[in-house]
From TrEMBL:
<dbReference type="Pfam" id="PF00005">
    <property type="entry name" value="ABC_tran"/>
</dbReference>
<dbReference type="InterPro" id="IPR017871">
    <property type="entry name" value="ABC_transporter-like_CS"/>
</dbReference>
<comment type="subunit">
    <text>Homodimer. Forms a membrane-associated complex with FtsX.</text>
</comment>
<comment type="function">
    <text>Part of the ABC transporter FtsEX involved in cellular division.</text>
</comment>
<dbReference type="InterPro" id="IPR003439">
    <property type="entry name" value="ABC_transporter-like_ATP-bd"/>
</dbReference>
<dbReference type="InterPro" id="IPR003593">
    <property type="entry name" value="AAA+_ATPase"/>
</dbReference>
<comment type="similarity">
    <text>Belongs to the ABC transporter superfamily.</text>
</comment>
<protein>
    <recommendedName>
        <fullName>Cell division ATP-binding protein FtsE</fullName>
    </recommendedName>
</protein>
<dbReference type="GO" id="GO:0005524">
    <property type="term" value="F:ATP binding"/>
</dbReference>
<dbReference type="InterPro" id="IPR027417">
    <property type="entry name" value="P-loop_NTPase"/>
</dbReference>
<keyword id="KW-0547">Nucleotide-binding</keyword>
<keyword id="KW-0132">Cell division</keyword>
<dbReference type="InterPro" id="IPR005286">
    <property type="entry name" value="Cell_div_FtsE"/>
</dbReference>
<keyword id="KW-1003">Cell membrane</keyword>
<keyword id="KW-0067">ATP-binding</keyword>
<feature type="domain" description="ABC transporter">
    <location>
        <begin position="2"/>
        <end position="228"/>
    </location>
</feature>
<keyword id="KW-0472">Membrane</keyword>
Length: 228
């Protein structure tokens, strides 16, 4: 599903964000990525959906070699990967329904298929009744739910979440995690970078710990392992 072999990422400013990373994530796994600020977590996440390219090494996602993937093929790759961001990245002038539907419109799905699927995912995230509202009329937690709905509307095999609970209060964060568990239970592979120690220690899943650009710990049902 996701393979990294001897992956190194050096930025033009001389910073080496990742060093010789080797990992394998199987279909259907739920994986936390943890580590101190500046350890390389965000780079690790961005490499998976080709926001960044590795300096050396090989990355394969869903059978696609990202190291040799042409830029013009990146949009096609991203149709197979759902991405959830800390800051939501919703289109403010579009309604909840339109924000989610947009992800299906770009792949030219039929209007009837779009309506059916969008309402299904809005129901899953508990926002069916707010389909006509604008993002600015929603709470932060509700906006994140819209972001999640958008990320899964095209039924991707992989969902990548970069600090998805970082801007949310604890109760709202637990609600978001409940949605992620439901998504994972349907067979979707989920990779989540997080600083939320309580969530990692309560909902035990595989933990990849990154320090100074290296994977220093890889544990099934691991804990957070850092003081924050």
């Amino acid at each position: 599903m996701i393979e990294m072999k001897d992956v190194t990422k050096k930025y033009p400013n001389g910073v080496t964000a990742l060093r010789g990373v080797d990992i394998s994530i199987k279909p259907g796994e739920f994986v936390y990525v943890v580590g101190p600020s500046g350890a390389g977590k965000s780079t690790f996440i961005k490499l998976m959906y080709r926001e960044e390219k590795p300096t050396s090494g090989q990355i394969v996602v869903n059978g696609v070699n990202l190291s040799t993937l042409k830029d013009k093929s990146v949009p096609l790759l991203r149709r197979q990967i759902g991405v959830v961001f800390q800051d939501f990245k919703l289109l403010p002038t579009l309604t909840v329904y339109e924000n989610v539907a947009f992800a299906m419109e770009v792949i030219e799905e039929s209007p009837s298929a779009i309506k059916k699927r969008v309402m299904e995912v809005l129901d899953l995230v508990g926002l069916k009744s707010k389909a006509r509202m604008l993002p600015g009329e929603l709470s932060g937690g509700e906006q994140q739910r819209v972001s999640i709905a958008r990320s899964i509307v095209n039924q991707p095999k992989v969902v990548i979440a970069d600090e998805p609970t970082g801007n949310l209060d604890p109760d709202t964060a637990w609600g978001i995690m409940d949605i992620f568990e439901k998504i994972n239970a349907k067979g979707t592979t989920l990779v989540m970078a997080t600083h939320n120690k309580e969530i990692v220690n309560t909902i035990r899943r595989r933990v990849l710990a990154i320090e100074d650009g290296r994977i220093v710990r890889d544990e099934q049902r691991g804990d957070y392992g850092y003081e924050i």
